[in-house]
Amino acid sequence: MTASQSVDLVTLGQRLRHLRRTRGMTLEQLSAAVGRAPSQLSVIENGKREPKLSVLQAIAAALDVSLQDLLRPEAPSRRAGLEIELAHLQKAPAYQGLGLPSVRAGRRLPADALESLIGLHRELQRLLTEQSATPEVARRANAQLRVNMRERDNYFAEIEQAAANVLRSVRHATGPLSQRGILDIAAQLGFTLHYVSDLPGSTRSVTDLRNRRIYLPQVASNKGHDPRAVVLQTLGHFVLGHADPSDYGDFLRQRVEANYFAAALLMPETFAVEFLREAKADRALAIDDFRDAFGVSYETAAHRFTNLATHHFGIPVHFTRVHESGIVYKAYENDGVQFPADVTGAIEGQPVCRKWASREIFQADDRYSSFYQFTDTAAGTYWCTVHIESTRSGEFSVTVGTPFEHARWFRGGDTTRRTVSRCPDPTCCRRPPADLVSRWSGSAWPSARVHSHLLAALPPGTFPGVDAQDVYEFLDRRA
Ligand SMILES: [Zn+2]
Fold this sequence. Notes:
By secondary structure, this protein is of the alpha+beta class. It contains 21 helices and nine strands. The protein has helices spanning about 10-20, 25-35, 40-45, 55-65, 65-70, 80-90, 95, 110-130, 135-150, 155-170, 180-190, 225-240, 250-265, 270-280, 285-295, 300-315, 355-360, 425-430, 435-440, 450-455, 470-479; strands at about 190-195, 205-210, 215, 320-325, 330-335, 370-375, 380-390, 395-405, 420. A six-stranded mixed sheet has the order 5-4-8-7-6-9. Strands 1-3-2 form a three-stranded mixed sheet, with helices on one face. Helix 6 (about 80-90) crosses helix 8 (about 110-130), helix 10 (about 155-170) packs across helix 13 and helix 15 (about 285-295) crosses helix 16. The longest helix has 21 residues, at about 110-130. The chain is globular, with a radius of gyration of 26 Å. The chain starts with 8 loop residues before the first helix and ends with a helix. Mean pLDDT is about 85; it is low at about 1-5. The structure holds zinc ion. Zinc ion binds next to helix 18.
């Protein structure tokens, strides 16, 4: 067990320092008492290291307090509380992104300076929250959904069960589900399918509940949408007992569940796991093989892989869908990767680091073949496999990634391609390189294409709403 599971390290450090000083002990004296180097205790007091339970017990004994008292979540004093708050505010991506130095809130920082800094930080947070592009309701629902998915390792046992029951009811016994099988399922559930040319543009299907008819678009395959999936998603709502959604969060949850249900029918758990187990044994896990084996879209295969990878194989994963402009449309993780987020924690609409595989692929010579990359980030090294899908709204990269040590189970896990991402440090990729700036600054005049929902997401730069680096690079290529 480690302390950080329940305790904030900065608070713990502050409590420790406070107790030590109240007892009139120097760092050296306490170190001697617990048999550790003063430097080791110092990093703990500064909240920079997670102490082992045995070390904590020794410290508690030396300070003559109970372990519980040492681990209490309250700041030891008002001043300490402010110092803790400042430490957290300075670590937030919104502040890190400004590239300003961190102020150490030690004893030498005057009280009024500390109060002033905290006041400014709080105001910055408030202003950024106000400006956030994603409406509050959607933001909270998206964040909640990501938490739920992480807690369940992206695996929904009750939906797997519901899908397995449906497959059993139509005596489906082999791998992929055919069009015939889908008709059987619809009939089994008492629905008939009707393909029409005048389906409302804003719907993917409409169901007449009275006559149990499902109306579907005649031009079935608008890019990326598997017509079989649309039928199964619709049936999913009924099988899973969805009622009229009570709010946006409910709507979102139902949608995710219906999509999950459809994927669990198109790629039944038993067969999919069997397929993946063999591939893993050969150290050749590959999303495109998984896609081909079950005849689904790449994105469906990628989502389905993330449903099963952690639960069945202990492989933690992350998923992103990123537009060619570099903006996140969808992302979730249970592998600790740090997605870009605005001050409110919203991920959707944020620009991804240029060094990430999901953006590097757009620069690749052969962007439509298999693309693998290791990326060093502040949260660790990740291996990713990326694929580009073309849609009517442009090209999207679909990425499945996993921490370094799990790359060996994948085809391409031995790639030599490797980048370093230092985001949210602004010198990583949010500011154009100095040579480009010196070449083009003052000689470029891009006219922004106004797209209000993206405006707030773009990094603040020389030109509002425009990525200065892209503009300079463009001019360089033409020059
Ligand atoms: Zn970056």
